[in-house]
Specification:
The structure is a single chain. By secondary structure, the protein is α+β, with helices and mostly antiparallel strands. The protein has one domain (about 30-195): 3-Layer(aba) Sandwich (Trna Endonuclease, Chain: A, domain 1), CATH 3.40.1350. The chain is built from six helices and ten strands; from the N terminus they run ααββββββαββαβαβα. The chain has helices at about 15-35, 35-50, 115-130, 150-160, 165-175, 185-195; strands at about 55, 60-70, 75-80, 90, 95-105, 110, 130-140, 145-150, 165, 175. The chain has a six-stranded mixed sheet, with helices on both faces. The chain has a two-stranded antiparallel sheet with strand order 2-3. A hairpin with a 5-residue loop joins strand 2 (about 60-70) and strand 3. The relative contact order is 0.13.
């Protein structure tokens, strides 16, 4: 048999088919993980437009050293002024919200090395002042996203005997976030269930 482009059909063996299938699965999982931030941003747009909440991505502060104006204004040299705190903050039902979003490819735990000490300090201060602080963690290979209160993460970070938080902690103490079309992530449903009972 010949395709319209003139090439002949060649049947792939089982090993080659399995490799291609595994590669497609990995790409699909990687794309889901890469889109966590985009999904949160789209969800925040939905929440803002619907008048539900006002939550924004916090920009990382940079210091611009050199700009090339020959092709418009293009930054050619810059550095981070200071360490960023967390990814997102805003207001929901009159309460301040602050959270960090992270991905992991592990299926058994979330590595604490993904969190910086200054983020822990910042979230402790949010909790101290009565704000809502949490982590949104995407287990990419499981296609599951959890909201976990910052106090659990802080406790594991400061007093845990492991260098990671077991997956079971997320299933027992966290809330599985529903993934949908609009909003992409129903993370405020999880916030509602955890903090506004």
């Amino acid at each position: 048999m010949r395709y319209p482009n003139g090439k002949t059909y060649q049947k792939k063996d089982n090993v080659e088919q399995k490799k291609e299938s595994a590669h497609r699965t990995l790409l699909s999982a990687a794309n889901r993980g890469m889109s966590l931030e985009e999904d949160i941003n789209l969800s925040n747009d939905y929440y803002r437009d619907a008048g539900i909440a006002l939550i924004n991505k916090r920009p990382t502060p940079i210091n611009i050293v050199k700009v090339d104006y020959s092709k418009g204004a293009r930054i050619t040299d810059a550095y981070f002024e200071k360490q960023s705190t967390t990814d997102y903050n805003g207001v929901y039902k009159g309460r301040y919200i602050d959270f960090e979003a992270k991905n992991t490819k592990s299926t058994t735990s979330f590595p604490l090395s993904n969190i910086s000490e200054h983020q822990i300090v910042h979230l402790k201060n949010v909790l101290k002042h009565g704000g809502i602080a949490f982590f949104i963690i995407s287990f990419q290979m499981k296609d599951e996203i959890y909201l976990l209160d910052a106090s659990f993460v802080i406790d594991f970070y400061e007093h845990g005997k492991r260098k990671s938080i077991p997956y079971e902690v997320f299933t027992k103490e966290g809330i599985l976030i529903k993934q949908d079309y609009s909003p992409r992530l129903h993370y405020l449903d999880a916030v509602e269930a955890l903090y506004f009972k």
